[in-house]
Amino acid sequence: MKEITHFICLLTLAFSYSQTELIQILNNNSSFIIEGKVISSSSNFRPNGDIVTNYIVEKTQNLKGSAQANITVQVVGGQVDGHFQIVTHQVKLKTGDKGLFFLKRNSSSTNYFFKGEDYFMNYARLSKQEIDELNKSILNLYPDFEVISHSKNTTRAATNLAEITSVLPQEISAGTNSDLTIRGTGFGNNKGSVGFLNANDGGANYFFTHHLIKSWTNTEILVTVPELAGTGRIKVKIPTTPETSVMAPFASKITIPYSRFTITTTSYGDSLTIPLRHIGAMPNGANPPTSAHLIDGAYHFKMFSNFYNNESARTIFLKYLEKWSCKTGINFLDAGVRTLEDEFSGSLNEVRFSNFDEQGYGGAAFTSIKGVYTCPSSSSSPDPESITAILTEIDFVYDNQVNWGYDTVAPNEFDFSFATAHEIGHAVLFYHVIDNISLMHYAGSNGYRNLQEIPEPFVSSGITGVSESISPYPCGDPMTVSSCFTLSLENKDIKNAISIRTIGSNIEIKTNSIAMIRQIYVYDISGRIVNKAQFKTLPSRHNINLDSNNTQIYMVKVRLSNDLVHVAKVLL
């Protein structure tokens, strides 16, 4: 059993500035600015249960503030002894990274931290033109700065022998196990990598995936779209010497209206991407085994007094907690103010204000999502396909130093309503998208955001996520649907779309014309996968033969082409 914490922050900085303006903002918001290189890292727990990763940075130039030759830059998130904490809007570093570090000092330690993801400028990600612009911007502030020489880039543009001719489908979701087909010529027969625009920085950079590529030929690539992927053109890196890359044409730009969270781990061998789901009670084998705030199929939220006593903040939070619950069926409930007794009750779903500078957090608000890998919990080497990440605790935290706007929002205030709706969207398991008018766009900004309703792409996908969480599950009780969700999810959206029945030793799965079958998994009662089917050409009917000699109970999980998921028990 492994524990995960998902820690999601919302940035206060809007990234619509020129590079000179951005450098000036970063400079004003930073106490220490250095050029340096990451030489080592280690992760550990904080007393409050957070995991932090300490990066040792060797300074090569000092621009602002007084810093030693080697400093410790602390980033929330990491991995310790099977425990995980993943933080968005926190800088992602690795040993060998070199660039400009815009830092603040953690008031409770001698360590430094970043206020946001753009507070580290990684030289390796910058083109020659961007390096030249950065040099000019830095020299305007620090005339003694020793300019950056462009690092050698071993990636070259692909020759005219490599070409992307189509990318389908052109509208697709991310983090939902959805597959993208890239067709063209000159890809070669050795698997390379596929690049997507990063939704965590608004598409400022590409990130590349190798382990999610299902097949690779000279003319076609099949890749599962990862949670970080955002709207835009994809790239393909071809493993030649030197490495070559080719970008999809403008006409083949993909649109990603929503993305859902997954967890990527190597704990079970090769990199494995695991879906997340809510649950109605602590799963079997979890420690602690019970929680006062995960009971009766719902997540009960308690507010710290510093939040509860802020009537405007409390009213807005409860408004959007109810809105998300009623629109999607997610069972989030208000449990009132946190008491002294709650400190000793184990897991808490908390809502509070905090001083982010004292804690070394970036952003303006975050959602902390904790959980465990589960099912089957008793197996030392489970089938990776049977593993799911179960959420056991959700916290919402706001920076009390932010100039929040509540009932009315002035141009110099941060819209509390928008931030709250966004953060609860993370708790419903939505990731960021690249669309600056979308609720789940990665960055916020000052001023009124005119948030009227939760956009419909998130509503329909949220309903799908709830359908997975209310389905039977071998390792714990399912979540129940919120009382204000009036649609009968099982009856209307799923049961009318699919039928599952047994015929002899066969399990027949049949859908109507609205949705086709994308995947089928059959589990035995222990949670072990005994049969599975994934389809490139999606059928409306499929039979699975189990050829079982003994009568057994099986669980059949079917994912449809419209992303609805149905789980049913069958006796065979």
Q: The CATH topology of the largest domain, please?
A: Collagenase (Catalytic Domain)
Structural class: mainly beta
CATH architecture of the largest domain: 3-Layer(aba) Sandwich
Low-confidence stretches: 9-16, 487-491
- Proportion in helices: 10-25%
CATH class of the largest domain: Alpha Beta
Q: What is the strand content?
A: 35-45%
Number of alpha- plus pi-helical segments: 8
Main pleated sheet: 11 strands, mixed
Radius of gyration: 24 Å
Relevant terms:
single chain, 572 residues, mainly beta, OB fold (Dihydrolipoamide Acetyltransferase, E2P), Immunoglobulin-like, Collagenase (Catalytic Domain), 4 domains, eleven-stranded mixed β-sheet, six-stranded antiparallel β-sheet, 8 helices, 14% helix, 37% strand, globular
Describe this structure in words.
The protein has four domains: 3-141, OB fold (Dihydrolipoamide Acetyltransferase, E2P); 156-256, Sandwich (Immunoglobulin-like); 263-350 and 397-469, Collagenase (Catalytic Domain) (3-Layer(aba) Sandwich); 489-571, Sandwich (Immunoglobulin-like), CATH 2.60.40.3080. The protein is globular, with a radius of gyration of 24 Å. The chain has eight helices and 35 strands. Helix 1 crosses helix 2 and helix 4 (311-328) packs across helix 6 (416-427). The strands form seven sheets. Strands 1, 5, 6, 19, 20, 21, 22, 23, 24, 25 and 26 form an eleven-stranded mixed beta sheet that branches. Strands 2, 3, 4, 7, 8 and 9 form a six-stranded antiparallel beta sheet that branches. The chain is mostly beta strands and 572 residues long. 14% of the residues lie in helices and 37% in strands.
